[in-house]
Amino acid sequence: MAELIIMPKLGFDMAEGTLLRWLISEGDQLAQGDVIAEIETDKATIEVESQFSGVVRKLVVEEGSSVPIGAPIAIVADAGESIDFETILAASASSSAEPADPAPEPRMMDHALSSSDGNGRLPGGVKASPVARRLAEEFNINLKSLEGSGQGGRIVKRDVEHSIAGQTDEASKVSLPVLPQLEGSETVEAPLTKLRGLIGRRMTSSKQEIPHFYLTSSFDAAAFMKMRSDLNARMPAEEKFSIHDFILKAAGLALRKFPNLNASLGDGKIIRHGAVNIGLAVAVEGGLLTVVIRDVDWKPLRIISTDARAAIQRARAGRVHQDDVEGSTFTVSNLGMYSIDSFVAIINPPEAAILAIGSVEDVAVVKDGEIVPGKRFKATLSADHRVTDGAEAAEWLQIFKGFIEDPLLLLL
Amino acid sequence: MAVITMREAISQAIWEEMERDEDVFIMGEEVGIWGGTYAVTRGFYDHFGGERVRDTPIAEGVIIGAANGAAMAGLRPIAELMTINFAFLAMDQIVNHSAKLRLMFGGQFKIPIVIRAVGGGGRQLGATHSQTPDAVFAHFPGLKVVSPGTPSDAKGLLKTAIRQDDPVMFIENATLYQVRGEVPDEEHLVPIGVSKVQREGHDATIVTYSKMLQKSFVAAERLSSEGIEVEIVDLRTLRPLDMGPVVQSFKKTNRAVIVEEGWKSYGVGAEIAARLYEEAFDYADAPIKRLAQKEVPLPYNHDLEQHAIPQVEDIIMAVKEVL
Questions:
Q1: How far is residue B283's CA from residue B247's CA, in Å, rounded to a whole number?
Q2: What topology does CATH give the domain B2-183?
Q3: Do residues A227 and A146 share a domain?
Q4: Mean pLDDT across the stretch A251-266?
Q5: Would you say B194 and B236 are in contact if contact means Cβ atoms under 8 Å apart?
Q6: Is A385 a known active-site residue?
Q7: What CATH class is the domain B196-322?
Q8: Quick one: pLDDT at residue A177?
Q9: Which helix (DSSP H) or strand (DSSP E) does residue A214 occupy?
Q10: A42 part of a folded domain
Q11: Residue in A with minimal Cα distance to B320
Q12: For the whole model, what pTM was predicted?
């Protein structure tokens, strides 16, 4: 019997997807789980698997076209079966007029697993010992780039350790200016990567459509920095807290207490989201991804830290899950590690606000008329003026300040 | 600390406990007037008398059965099996009665018996008198299974075993009786169910016990002269098994060789390797290696017998295979 493959729903705010590229042709034999197409959503490019086996009888949409979720993109059937394409497509058009929530979400393809380089079902397509895999993931090293020195070419711990040592050597070198050279200075044109293009389009539309306004405030970091070092003294090396863990928790609690900023502009209405899911902007190779830490308002700090660490690792390794990049209701962007005083971030649609975090600095502060050493950081809130106003946003920042400057509250 | 043999250490342990507690007594074949097949109880009969040092008929089921009864009645028997190979004749008493009576009858009885059994091969005694079936006994919940590899542990573990209210299989490797080592002069008790790092190293972990511990010491010294430092974890007790030091060492070295004298199939090495994969999979840097007896009834012929039992050279080779 003929089966329709439809445009899957890959995110809660996804209305349509662009079919970037077909990976199958009409007449191909298809097994359930085969990758059939690359689909670009607002957030990422995703490979989609077939839920059916059979012969590809018709590709309904062309590459490059935008397709609403639930709409048919291909028809799969037995080889000899006679099919009335028009009737099937018409029937599906009438049924997909109802709000489409297609049944099973397609399983994301793990790029590494799908590689067929003769190493069969080896995880990642490489032969590596478990400890080598763990270390490689921890230090973000691509196992495929290593030569294995173990038995039968197995990549073992020492191979990864050599690679880590190499990286550290590179990093510790002073960054010298490039020596002037007569050759090799031509202008080069590099095509936009998919990610670069996507970021460009989203940021352009955000800046053009959203009337941003900005509030900057300075925060006392001494208490939570002290708490962080006290906590980290008790944590194993792989579970140390990052500064952003505290920012996420404080922002999550502030959003729960004052939900006006945990919102999106809908069609003639403001949607206040029930869950507080905070996106954390992560620099990745060739661009930026926002990974989502869910239910930050009620999750304990340690879970937030673990979730964030895992999501960041997956983002940097190019293996985000769909869950990692969709469903955020507010975003935090932290450039504190780059010695940045403060900066202004562009709102990540359809959210209503983004918080940009600068570096924690040792500064002289005036306390009771005396100049004393203190720790401060600046944060800038960008907000959507269609959803909220300056006074409301300032109130939110005050609440955030209350949590971040009295960090024991983050443990309650 | 005095340097004494394993035989002396075991003999001291029994002597001291019999002096300490008059409920402790010995029974077994030739343990009395003859002084024990391996001369462990020489002099006991004259000192403690025939009531507490009892020669029995050649009937292992009777030895363990009578010991079970005596234990239920409140005594603390040490039952000696001339070799562990004869334990099979007493298997029903050991696994169905010693191991279960206390639990099946809701704690109405305690079974404080120690079954001393001599095991191991390499002495040209033929296939039926040379076995190392330690894993068989370690399979049964209810039994504690102890097998020391040094005189100090032998003394301390045996004294603890005698004071236990549960049945303990105390397995002595016959080729260890002449091994010498330091034993504390004062009261010396070693807890049952605690593994021990006997040698520190960082390149690979050898997990072993009993006779193979001594062979591993020799292998470790030879490897050390080549710049390879192995860590040796001595299990000492097979049940209850203490994986703590084993896992800790494996997390440090990422490589393990398990050396046992018994057969490989369904053996101690299989158990340890499986638990390491369960508890520390992400720390493995090479497949865990098991070194064990060849899968044959042990030959009588000297060269064939030695070939079938793991030797120092085999341990060295196995370590190099996981590096």
A1: 9
A2: Rossmann fold (3.40.50)
A3: no
A4: 91
A5: yes
A6: yes
A7: alpha beta
A8: 67
A9: strand A212-220
A10: yes
A11: A151
A12: 0.54
